[in-house]
């Protein structure tokens, strides 16, 4: 069954935010520009959190919001959830390396990179703020590294890219 979702056009493409049981579960890029079919209605808490997510994403992209305040439900292992929690703690306009997060988590940089790539809620869980030790690293969202650079520039972290 399809989860309730909301759609939003952003400077980095059209995104779809999905929620269940009053928590955001996924953010993905919409593959086609056509308007999608309406997702099934959810409970009141789910509809409210989707509305808040759209409002907060709009505020983020308009420069009025630096930290998201939404209930999140990260699917995945305990390690995936721990990596996402560390990523979510990186302040707006700042970055960390895969190695720094690995050191905090007691794991390898490669494992952190894999977990970043599997982040189910990019932008809101800002995996674009995680860089390689000697470069940008990757980005699993639409547009790849170009989208990562765009998000970092939006946050004023572009000085890191020069």
From TrEMBL:
Enzyme class per UniProt: transferase
Main location per the UniProt record: cytoplasm
Residues of the Methylguanine DNA methyltransferase ribonuclease-like domain: 8-73
Name this polypeptide is given: Methylated-DNA--protein-cysteine methyltransferase
Pfam families per record: DNA_binding_1, Methyltransf_1N
Reported function: Involved in the cellular defense against the biological effects of O6-methylguanine (O6-MeG) and O4-methylthymine (O4-MeT) in DNA. Repairs the methylated nucleobase in DNA by stoichiometrically transferring the methyl group to a cysteine residue in the enzyme. This is a suicide reaction: the enzyme is irreversibly inactivated.
Note: This enzyme catalyzes only one turnover and therefore is not strictly catalytic. According to one definition, an enzyme is a biocatalyst that acts repeatedly and over many reaction cycles.
Gene3D superfamilies reported for this sequence: Methylated DNA-protein cysteine methyltransferase domain (3.30.160.70), Winged helix-like DNA-binding domain superfamily/Winged helix DNA-binding domain (1.10.10.10)
UniProt catalytic activity: a 4-O-methyl-thymidine in DNA + L-cysteinyl-[protein] = a thymidine in DNA + S-methyl-L-cysteinyl-[protein]; a 6-O-methyl-2'-deoxyguanosine in DNA + L-cysteinyl-[protein] = S-methyl-L-cysteinyl-[protein] + a 2'-deoxyguanosine in DNA
Domain of life: Bacteria
GO CC field: cytoplasm
Organism of this sequence: Phaeobacter gallaeciensis
Keywords: Cytoplasm, DNA damage, DNA repair, Methyltransferase, Transferase
Similarity annotation: Belongs to the MGMT family.
E.C. code: 2.1.1.63
Annotated catalytic residues: 127 (nucleophile)
